[in-house]
Description:
By secondary structure, the chain is of the alpha/beta class.
Amino acid sequence: MNEDYPKTILELEQWFATDEACRDYLVRLRWPDGFACPRCDGREAWNASRGRFVCRTCRHQSSVTAGTIFQDTRKPLTLWFRAIWLITSQKNGASAASVQQILGLKSYQTAWTWLHKIRRAMVRPNREKLRGVVETDETFVGGEDPKDGTWIEQKSLVVIAAEEDGSGIGRIRMATVPAATRKHLHRFVQETTEVGSVIHTDGWRAYEGLEPLGYIHRRTVLLGQKDKNAASRLLPRVHRVASLLKRWLLGTHQGAVSTEHLDYYLDEFTFRFNRRASRSRGKLFFRLLQQAVQVEPTTYRSMVGRNSNA
Ligand SMILES: [Zn+2]
């Protein structure tokens, strides 16, 4: 499929005025080379109504939204597309409260659930790992912030990896970890960074032992007394990313982020950060929809845990 996407809100309104138009767009994103039956991989189908397809070979009935974040939604796709536009077209995204208000959704919970489903589409399956020289360090997010008052109830430990790109930053990855132990930090490095890369850390001992795993380990150790700003001079990229992340959580989301869902916010931040040089915001909209039709559906229940009655 050509990378065809709306470039302005006016184009968005014109292109996606009806659910049928939204569905046609999803069909082209999901099956760029034509329909493929999810059961038998048959290539021919009858078009049934509402974006459903009946396979000519095995008669299996599927729809363009089955198995995606849009599965079983009772709301119009036109609204979903606008929600996705809101969070991709704005530099800092959008909070659930603002999506609810702008789209006129009755319930905050719907807006909140949508944003979480959309965040799940922000991580492309089998995305490429970081490589080259990669600064890696941990930071605390949340808890009491002396400058800003209390926000995000609990403190969470977040590991951040940032590619060095000259004096600038390349791509990033981040994730919460239960503790800054060797086991968790090594696993983070292995999941985020290609073997053969240089892992640049401070002197924290839990990073020792990366060489046998195939990495080159560069440690920059601080000698003499601890000074508060020294860490940000040693690993400036990670610390720049950490401060942008905290500002975003506090600004856009006003700290209304619970610890158990923090990883999804990290995914959203990463999605946007790694595409910050993209010339068109519409391209982010396109990418997100493209990934959205490849993602397993998630229900509100599975997001908040089985015991919730919400
Ligand atoms: Zn089939």
